[in-house]
Design brief:
This protein is mostly helical and about 200 residues long. The chain has helices at about 5-15, 60-70, 80-85, 120-130, 140-150, 160-170, 185-200, and strands spanning about 40, 55-60. It has 7 helices and 2 strands.
Length: about 200
């Protein structure tokens, strides 16, 4: 990039290199006799035929602007066809294919069990497609994490929750282990998991 002491010239050159739609290359402009490189793509000529897909035309900036100015989407259409294409609902009448499986509901994304701290997607999918509690009560991602800490199944009830909590507190509390405080971190996790679950809808 050239710098000649004039910031305006430098800014102009920088803007040109980032012109929207410009694709640099050594293609010549499609207009006969034009010495500029063809850096802007345009549709192929109407009626051009080949064995493969039609090749695009490439124009310089000046000629692609002229092409765009003269382009008419409705060229060759009858008045009735133009009216039909301009209707607000044009295109909405076409039938779309169904995405649901023939044998049942949506299988869901392959990533439905990804780590989702806010439980914005994965828990909703699990609730709708594979409920894990016989009573139908929903479990959030945090509920499942807390159940894992306590070693409880998803179908555990409030009574089982209290019983398991008491067992683990007795197991990890220093007073039950001769003052050994090596399990304090586990004890804190157990307490936090219990407090979270006892207020969860599944254990209400």
């Amino acid at each position: 990039m050239r710098f000649d002491g004039d910031c305006r010239v430098l800014a102009k050159e920088r803007a040109n290199t980032r012109f929207h739609g410009r694709i640099e290359g050594d293609r010549p402009c499609a207009v006969p006799g034009c010495p500029e490189p063809g850096e802007f793509r345009a549709p192929p000529l109407e009626g051009a035929s080949s064995d493969g897909p039609p090749a695009f035309r490439w124009f310089c900036l000046e000629h692609v602007r002229a092409f765009n100015a003269g382009y008419n989407y409705f060229d060759g259409m009858t008045a009735e066809e133009i009216h039909h294409a301009q209707r607000p609902l044009a295109g909405w009448e076409r039938e779309t294919r169904a995405f649901a499986r023939a044998g049942g509901g949506d299988p869901g994304p392959r990533w439905h069990d990804f780590a989702d701290p806010l439980d914005a997607i994965s828990a909703r999918f699990r609730r709708e497609t594979a409920p894990e509690r016989s009573d139908g009560k929903p479990l959030s991602g945090q509920d499942r994490a807390s159940l894992k800490v306590l070693g409880l199944a998803a179908d555990a009830d409030r009574s089982a929750l209290r019983k398991r909590y008491s067992e683990l507190v007795r197991r990890y509390h220093p007073d039950r282990n001769g003052g050994d405080r090596s399990h304090e971190a586990l004890l804190q996790k157990v307490i936090a998991a219990y407090q979270q679950l006892r207020q969860a809808p599944a254990f209400a």
